[in-house]
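Field reference: "sequence" (input) and "structure" (output). Example, DUF1631 domain-containing protein:
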Amino acid sequence: MQLTEPGSAPRPDGEVRLVALSARPTLPPRVRSLLEGVLALAGGLLERSLALTLNEHEQQLFKLAEKAHSSNEQHAVFESLREVKRGRADVAPRFMLFLESALAQLDGKPEAAASAPPRRFQELALVETRDLEEHIALQEISAKAEIRHSQALYALGHRFGVMAGAPALDAERLPLGPQQICAALRYATACLGIALEHRLLLYRQFDRVALAEAGALFSAVNDYLIEKRILPHLQLAPGRGSVATPPQSPANAANTPPPAGARPAPPRGASGSRTAQPEDTRDSELFHTLRELLAGRRQHLAPVPAAAGTLSSYVATGEDLQAVLGSLQARPAAPMILGGRVVQRNIAHLRQDLLNQLRQFTPDGRPPRLTEVDADTLDLVGMLFDFIAKDVRPTGATQSLLTKLQVPVLRVALRDKSFFTRRGHPARQLLNAIAETGQYWIDETEGEADRVLVEKMQLVVDRVSNEFDGRDELFDELLTDLSRHMGTLARKAEVSERRHVDAAKGRERLDIARERATQAVAARLQDKKVNRLVRSLLEQAWTDVLALTILRQGEESEVYRRRLGVVEQLVAGQETGSPALRHDIEQGLGQVGFHAEEVQEMLQQILGGGPPRDDSSATRTELALKLKSKTRLGEEPAAEAPPVASAIGGPAAGAAEAAAETAPLSAEERQMLERLKTLPYGTWFEFVLNQQGDTVRRKLSWFSTLTGRCLFVNQRGARTEERSMQQLARDLVRKQVRIVSEERESLIDRAWHAIVGTLRNFAGKPPAAQTDAG
């Protein structure tokens, strides 16, 4: 395969020769390793976007079928829909194979490019209208993406140029650029035999779902290459400026000194001892600004001059603090009992324990005192843990884990002030992972926590408490271990969620088919006098038989027409039915879960000889009641129904809401309903559970604009409830449910922003100041 011009990927029918990374022995080992890492990173993001695109495309095709003006148009849409369902499993593998081939052919050869004659004009050739329209559509999509993400692509071009040993690559030559992604999409979807207009619709949906957010992919790849020391100090001027660092090869990228004034990027896993590493000037300035804001807060809360006795106190050194904290770290962080309530220890308690321990080492019995820098560090760490505690259950497992991390985190912060300002600090990332995992995966307001996950997190925290001695490598190791475990859980959750979504879609299709079957039976029963047993059979069990037939064979099939004929014969009173009629009834009822004995009993009463068949027959009445009480096809028994998030007021309020389900929506509720229809799958909601304001997070995995049904799952992908979009709109207006805005920052980053904002308020500084902790 050759890297082709934008949007013009060759047709896959024997004309594309894909190359795997393993088939390129000429690639340097380091470059091969980097490309494999880039492929794995991009695969996780792009495959998910591709799945969302196909899901939305199926929904759009279904809507087009409903709005079709003719049966031929509807048939064409359903043909495309069947093709998408049939071939969607092949799309993602083909997509990734194309991208891998593009990465495998990253072999910049500037001398070949220089010797090639310039091409002023493209070669002319006859092009089919279909290919031309696809090419134009993909070209427009990729051009928009290049404009939208020009900065990230510019940086990516320089880094891929380093790996290729060539000048910076243009966006059209980037193996992961928008044009190659569009070419991969065209190659991947060529296995779907769908109409041109439906294919163009698929491209537009991919643009809206995937390429609009492709900046996250490009940023992630840039961050990955920075971690691997590929142009870590690349400086971009505003817009598309020049770089301050020339391209480097992977072999010497790590040995090139940073440009003047550039902020050095400390490697992950660096030693906790910073004596051999110069302190980051920008980190020092940010921490100094934090201290100034903290002093303003302290002055606002307690504007009292320092006591004179502090002059004779002993100022604890950094070594003293580390020694005392090391001994406190080895002790269990037992909770305290205040006012008859169990209270977890916080940084204020830790400060008191620290000062008490320091008294044993102070000379001449002088009281210990912390330096202003160390005191401010304790205050900032305390504010950080207080912010995290707001979203954590006080009696949950996460709170005890965070309490155990207080001493190690404080030791890191006292030794290395970049903990406050560097987002990639290993201790900061591990603290964030523990807090977010506990908040979203363990401390759920309802349900039991995952015992295996709790044990895993306890093991990680215990290792920090027992083994941390100032080395950051431990945080890196434990973070990698926890991330690998969480990745496994996330994949399991995705599989579980997909299974529930497929089941919900199947139930929707069954409901639609049952509605059509019900209408067909009702039309044939209209104004007809039929005894109770036959009516119950047709309206209950045989309606399910017809619905199942619609799903399997379709309404145009011979089987469906024959089973409709059964309805007409029974309604017409042909109760001495032929063997063919008896066979059709036996076969149909057997498919919807009736036992042979039950079927024969009904046939004896309907088709066989015996007493006159009228409603006075007790046996017939019992059979009719049994038919009505039998679980319908696709329905769940009441005991197995998923739990429903209760609104404020308990069961009585839930009954009132069920009664009000059919009430017309208000203007505000109708507006909210229209907004719900535009939300993407995967949007998170918070449901209020009780009058105390306890909430639980649920993800909207799927909804249907046809039936109005919504499916919610929890963090583990387990189905929690199904409710109507109308009821959800009512709850949103009543503030019993709220839409959770997408968090683009980590919990720790949000904590620092909130802390800085609070400190600015005390200091009287405007919020638009440029200070940013991390």
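Residues 501-638 form one domain.
The two ends are 44 Å apart (CA to CA).
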